[in-house]
Amino acid sequence: MSSATLTERTAEAGTSHGGVPARRAVIRWALRLFRREWRQQVLVLGLLTVAVAATILGAGVATNTPPPKVATFGTATASISLPGTEPHLAAVVAQIGRHYGPIDVIENQALSTGSTHSVELRAQDPAGRFGRPLLALDSGHYPAGPGQVALTSQVASLYNVKTGGAWHADGRAWLVTGIVENPTDLNDEFALVAPGQVIAPTQVTVLLNAPPGAGQDQNQTTPHGPPPPVFHGLPADANVSLASQSGNGGISPATIVLVVAVLGLVFIGLVSVAGFTVMAQRRLRALGMLSALGATERNVQLVMTANGAAVGLTATVIGAVLGFAAWFAYVPSLETDTAHRIDPLNLPWWAIAAGIALAVVTSVLAARRPARTVARVPVVAALSGRPAEPKAVHRSAVPGLVLVAGGVACLFFSGGWAGNSGSDTLLLLGGLVAIIIGIFLLAPLCVALLSAAAGTQIPLAPVAMRIALRDLVRYRARSGAAVAAVSFAVFLAMLIGIVASVRFSNVLDYTGQNLTTSQLIMYTQDQGPNAQGGGLTPAQVAVLQSKVSRFAASLHAQYVLPLETVNATLQQEGRQNNNFSGTVYVATPALLADFGIKTSQVDPDADILSMRPGLGDEPRMQLIYGAMGPKGNPSTLDNPKIQEISALPSGTSAPNTVITSHAIQKYNLQTSLDGWFIQVPQPLTSAQIAAARQIAANAGVSVETKSGELGLGQISDGATVLGLVIALGVLVMSVGLVRSETVGELRTLSAVGASSRVRRTITAATAGAIGLLGAILGAAGATIAGVAWARSSLGTTFGDFPVIDLLALLVGLPLVAAVGGWLLAGRQPPVIARQALD
């Protein structure tokens, strides 16, 4: 055979793709490699699995957290509310039915139960045309005639009655026939009676379908305002609402979840590129052998691409199983938290399908780049198996700095708290994406800087530590990806805490927990939404005080503090709606003593004492006092002297801001008893809260206990724990993979007599270094992003940030990582002479 013929056949063999059989053979080989080496890809598998599971769980939570669309109108498209004081109420309701077609009438009468939440006696037809979604039967049966009632579980617990028992309210005795609920609002406390059994309704709601022309171009009325033009003949005090105006505008929750999932997948894709690059390097000799046997560049690329598809599909299946399992398990808790029933299958399937598909696409795209690179390596170089020289760090550092700067600019111009337009949302998302990608690109630079600093600043460091830092630089693709993944978890935790602290730092829009779980306030008047005004007589106050004292004694209360108020309020001049939430109580000697405040700590000239940080520095504050009634002429004190005392309680309903005796005497203010603040040593139980509400109901007043608002500490602690769990999980996977690259060196160290202490030090130093770099890089990125977005100084941004959470991220994470690496390492390789096979 001539040399020309041989050359021709060789060229033909080199240019042929091998057809379907060759691709099938390559794919089968890639899948076998994946089954054998899946442990080396556990980082990418884990991240993709978490992303898919989080997308499913997040989509379910975001979609089902808002109340359902039928929460207000049922299946109707309009609602007309009429006051019970309407003189011709029955005639007006009948006229609405004649003019606008079928209607569903719901009558409500407010009851006093001693709670700040309203409890109503409700007459509603369970089979009504429009109101059926607003009513559900839990047990028993619906009331069918006079003297029968069905209670919600809250009302039944309050009055300690069960099905078949007698319920006494509104001067009547009722037979309890069952337990009911409003599936769209589980906090709706009511007693259901048959239609026509509410004698003196406080409000009547008429549900109906809106007539033609009552679209979104109609202006929704305010209470006591004129009805829309399409409604005629209604009283002036009727309130008309249209369902078309009650929907939530803006971006849907499912879309937001999908956008967040895309952000996470972008970062995971970048980390996956590094992971697949390492896998390509590990398989370099095998891929070189494949090329030597005649495989084309496309065949070699297909090996890595098929591996990426296998990783993506495996992670998607596992993530989908975990995500749906977590969602179905979380539905009961979410129903309690959101106070409405949830259909577990009510999911945005399009968003879930898109998230699952994107996970697979992310894995495939991440594998394609290293696949193209390794396919172009010459056969001889591939067979040598020598690792490629790490790329110069400036190649990724410069683009990383540019992206971070661009992301900061986008966040700065996104509008902060006030940003709510579409362009603001795009700037916010673009800024976060740019900073996330920038962090990834800066991670290799941080690895190189740490190694350089350790080599120059710690020349006497143990050899094992220097080996660990050297390996981090040698295998920068893997270690940089690990640092980036850890920094991403810290970035999210820090950013959530920063945003929460900035929100909570607004002293004039005070927010957070109203009380702690071991506190309650018994008021001397009804403060519920249906309160009729007026208070108790001195004799009634004395009787209530004795009941409160006995109740507090049964709880072994630490103190029962009388809360006194004055006819004064605090506000900032020119600030609309005041925005100063909370009552200004009196700083009585008993109040100061109970909170451990000595008289010597109080400035004799101070007018106001407050624990709200920064309140004393707010300009244009005003103390409005004197005749506060509609016809009164109150006086104004500009810039009262406000002293900050941190010992006062921080709850929004607790006495966190008080007026001094000096101001009361100076401005001749009158004090009055507002209630009793009770502090107990243990969290209040549901039975104790029910007993307090019963006392308040019998007296016609209200009691307040801890509501569902989260405090800054709870939000920040939750975000920190979540970030630490994710970061430590990534560290466990990453450290094992980084050390697996140097398994040959560990065998050599063991062969020359290195003890388990040396091996432990190497692993601990590796884990601690990755944890430290990730914590610093993530915290720095979150700080820059938070300051830019909130447009505030470092002092304002971190003024309320919990120090313990900051230390947990910056100090605790690397420390726990190092300790964990030390404890989990040290085992001698089982066969020292055995060499790893590619």
Query: How would the global form be characterised?
Result: globular
Q: Biggest sheet, open or closed, and with what strands and sense?
A: 10 strands, mixed
Question: How many helices?
Answer: 24
- Name the helicity range: 40-55%
| Strand elements, count | 21
Overall structural class, as computed from helix and strand content, comes to alpha+beta
Mean pLDDT: 76
What are the segments in which pLDDT stays under 50 over at least 5 consecutive residues? 1-16, 215-226, 245-250, 831-838
Task: Report the portion of residues in β strands.
Answer: 5-15%
Radius of gyration computed on alpha carbons: 34 Å
Q: What is the end-to-end distance?
A: 37 Å
Folded structure, characterized:
This protein is α+β, with helices and mostly antiparallel strands and 838 residues long. Helix content is 51%, strand content 13%. The protein has 24 helices and 21 strands. The strands form 4 sheets. Strands 1, 2, 3, 4, 5, 6, 7, 8, 9 and 10 form a 10-stranded mixed beta sheet that branches. It has a 4-stranded antiparallel beta sheet with strand order 12-20-11-21. Helix 3 runs antiparallel to helix 10, helix 7 runs antiparallel to helix 15 and helix 14 packs across helix 15. The N terminus and C terminus are likely disordered.
